[in-house]
Amino acid sequence: MSFSLYSVSGKDFIGREEIINELVKELSSKNKIGFSLSGIRRIGKTSILKETKRILENSGITVIYISVWSIVPSTVDEFTKIMNRVTISEFQKKLSTKFKFEHLLVTGTKALAIFLQNLKLSANVTEDLEVSVSYVRKESDDVEAAIKKSFSLIEDLSKMTKTTSVLIIDEFPSLVDLTYGTKNQKIGTEIVQLLRTLFEDFRNTKLVISGSFRDTLENLVAKEKAPFYKQLLLREVSSFNEAEFEKFVKHYLPTLKFVGKDTKIELYKITGGIPYNLQLIGKEIQYMKLKKIDKKKLYEIIQNVLQKEGNQSFKEVIANLSPSEIKVLKGLAKSPELSPKEISKQEFIDENSVSACLNTLEKKVIIKKIERGKYRFTDNMFAEWLKTQDSLHLL
Question: 0.85 exceeded by the pTM?
Answer without folding.
Answer: yes
